[in-house]
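Operator note (shift B, R.M.): manual run for Adenine DNA glycosylase requested after the automated queue skipped it. Running by hand, logging everything below so the morning shift can see what happened. Input copied straight from the record, untouched. If output looks odd, do not overwrite the archive copy; leave it for review.
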Amino acid sequence: MYSEEQKQYFSRNLLDWYHTHKRDLPWRRSKNPYYIWISEVMLQQTRVDTVIPYFHRFIDQFPTVEALATAPEENVLKAWEGLGYYSRARNLQTAVREVHERYGGIVPQTKEEISSLKGVGPYTSGAVLSIAYNKPEPAVDGNVMRVLSRYFLIEEDIMKPSTRTVMEKLARELILEGTASDFNQALMELGAMVCTPRSPHCLTCPVMAFCSGREAGMEEALPIKKKAKPPRPELRAVALIEGTGEHEGKWLIRQRPQEGLLARMWELPHVAWGSEGWLSDEDNGSLLRQNLADQEQILIQPDEWFMDTEHIFSHIVWKMKVYRAKLGDANRPGHGGEWIPFHYRWVGPEELHQYAFPNVFLRIMKEWQERSVD
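Run finished. Output pasted below as returned.
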């Protein structure tokens, strides 16, 4: 289907280009499969510039398989805070624990063993096996599919599993003997730096001469990708409950359930709103108070609207209205002390580092601090 001349030209010129132009990235300074694994998980859905400081902090805190395997989950989530897609961190720790217990802390070197680990799909297994162990395994991600679609003029929808299978077979054929580590990184690098999603830099591309997509004038039309559905909006009313007395300067936070979206992370109390839309701020506050009382046995006295914000997931977007509030008298028993559910805590700014939050709630509390100073 594709000429050997075209494939050989691609592989040899790509490797020559990479050896001269590759970026100095921290995970490229080591062949440690554990470090490479961490970097590849972090780089899913996240830009390189964002990942670099997280990678440094993460391996400083968890320098070995054993360190991550034995760490409390809350410490791992806190180190991941801000990267999003927190299931990645949980799956990574679960898989690392299996490596620690079953493989003596050595990341497996076979496709079958590494693919059996939690959260390790075809791309991650191929990346770790090829980059760390120089195994001739393909590592096909979005960058790679874009490059191959353009160079070989592949006009199939890259969202189809059958297209990915074709790409993986082709990528495997392109790996010259003994070059898997550099080749897969070179392929990723070309997609990130030259063969970019928009306005590809064709004139500086090391494999332009045999690029079928460019010859056909389709370099910007490829790859073919069916558009994903936009995230579904959900309305959420948030209670920014401010402490008084001994809790002055603190907020009431709660821990999410053990399973599901953002499992076991911490947040400001909030409730899902109906599909009919927002009401007036006064009515929103009243319904927020009623829902928290019914669902959580937390009685509040809503004060005023504070801010609007949103939190975007891959499949939903929370549209959030935040209301300042105080804890109601009903949560202050007359016989002394204060009653709140076991999964709630009072926390001040100096204690936030002890809890893992989705970024949106940190933004709300930071905004409160900044306005208080003003």
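Quick read of the result: The chain has two domains: 4-215, 232-373. The chain is about 45% helix and 15% strand.
Leaving this for review. - R.M.
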